[in-house]
TrEMBL record:
One of its GO terms (molecular function) is hydrolase activity. SUPFAM superfamilies: Phosphoglycerate mutase-like. This is Phosphohistidine phosphatase. The active site is at residues 9, 85. It comes from Desulfurispira natronophila.
Amino acid sequence: MKYLYIIRHAKSSWDAGVERDRDRPLNDRGQRDAPRIGQTLQELAVKPDAIICSPALRTWTTACEIAHQIGYAERNIQTNERLYEASLQDILAVISGPAFPSVDNSILVGHNPGLTDLVNAVSNMHIDNLPTSGTVCLRFDMDSWSDIGQQCGQWQFFYTPKRGLMQASL
């Protein structure tokens, strides 16, 4: 059994005066919301084996805030260039490829529209948009991440700082 926590980065600033999109920092709301994601995961006793994120500053900062809240060492967070501006196919290639760790519980921090497409493609859940700081937990009854394109993940919960925690009725 595998669990994938799909997290869109916290709200970022469009007015930061940076030249490159990947260098945009979190804005005030994002700085408040990123730790709240981690606190929620900590309350749910989430213990990831791996945290993987896009190399963009906003995803890295979000991942670090989550790691801090759940007691995961920041130095163990992995970045993957393919996750920046990733399509669904790019994300699936990362998850099913050799760069994705062979672990059971993984947190993936990235961007839209790829993450929304991922949730809709590999789960029994449909969402119109994964909002900033949106977190979806999917459970897969499989042995290897390489099977993700052939499996349907069962949603366990959906969290946003604005709406709170929505758990699947089991």
